[in-house]
């Protein structure tokens, strides 16, 4: 493993035989050490599951998140845990609380946005075939400055454990004002009222919002889109799947965001 700071790290596990439950304890421990050691330089973290599986799984990645939690990744700007069923609700809730906590007084400075150097990645002898840990190519986050600026992207698609109304109102609300991308798709433990309260009151800088497969009401969607600042900046609104919304609510949303 290179001594260069790791700024971006991504793993997507696909087929069931590649799921973390089948990884060896040694591999999990090495991954925990790697990310725990990189916590202070890490800007983007993606540990995502397969597109077509949202079921429960053993909490195999709890040691990895616990290692990160001990160090608190203060520079983290992008967090994507979509469809990751390999972390328990308790550990996920604790992790989100840590990474969404507001910076201490005097820490909210602007980041340096120089292009990131390509980070060296670990080559794990026991890495399952098909897993590609590496940096995120689709969007280059800013390089860490001396002080953190907090999360900009938060993707929690497919989480039912650890993501509930309490999480939204007491933890995610802390990071919401600075978010530019938020995905709560398939988070079926959330109520329409809690989602509306978070988005309509706190998420005023969003450019992308994914509420697919959430049970929404017309009133909740109206509350989400009520702030003029949100409507001006929003570039992507996903309401795919069964949301229980009447057909004309979609047209109303489109007109509100014009």
Give a description of the structure.
With 258 residues, the protein is of the alpha/beta class. The protein has helices at 25-37, 62-71, 89-100, 165-175, 192-202, 218-224, 228-233, 247-256, and strands at 8-12, 44-48, 78-80, 153-155, 181-183, 208-210, 236-238. The chain has a seven-stranded parallel beta sheet with strand order 1-2-3-4-5-6-7, with no helix packed on it. Helix 3 (89-100) runs parallel beside helix 4 (165-175), helix 4 runs parallel beside helix 5 and helix 5 (192-202) runs parallel beside helix 6. It starts with 7 loop residues before the first strand and ends with a helix. Mean pLDDT is 79; it is low at 108-148.
Main traits of this protein?
alpha/beta, 258 residues, 31% helix
């Amino acid at each position: 493993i290179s001594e260069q700071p790791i700024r971006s790290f991504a793993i997507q596990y696909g087929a069931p035989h590649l799921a973390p439950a089948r990884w060896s304890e040694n591999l999990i421990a090495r991954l925990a050490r790697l990310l725990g050691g990189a916590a202070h330089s890490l800007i983007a973290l993606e540990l995502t599951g397969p597109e077509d599986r949202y079921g429960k799984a053993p909490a195999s990645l709890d040691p990895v998140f616990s290692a990160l939690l001990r160090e608190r990744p203060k520079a983290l700007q992008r967090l994507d845990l979509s469809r990751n069923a390999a972390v328990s609700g308790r550990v996920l809730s604790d992790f989100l609380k840590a990474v969404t906590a507001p910076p201490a007084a005097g820490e909210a400075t602007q980041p340096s946005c120089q292009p990131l150097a390509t980070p060296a990645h670990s080559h794990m002898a026991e890495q399952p075939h098909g897993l590609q840990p590496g940096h995120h190519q689709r969007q280059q986050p800013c390089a860490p400055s001396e002080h953190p600026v907090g999360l900009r992207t938060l993707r929690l698609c497919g989480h039912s454990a650890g993501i509930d109304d309490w999480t939204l109102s007491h933890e995610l609300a802390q990071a919401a004002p600075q978010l530019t991308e938020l995905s709560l798709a398939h988070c079926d433990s959330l109520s329409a009222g809690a989602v509306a309260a978070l988005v309509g009151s706190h998420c005023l800088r969003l450019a992308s919002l994914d509420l697919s497969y959430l049970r929404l009401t017309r009133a909740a969607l109206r509350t989400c889109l009520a702030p003029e600042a949100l409507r001006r900046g929003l570039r992507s609104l996903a309401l795919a799947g069964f949301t229980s919304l009447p057909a004309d609510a979609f047209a109303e949303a489109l007109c509100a965001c014009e």
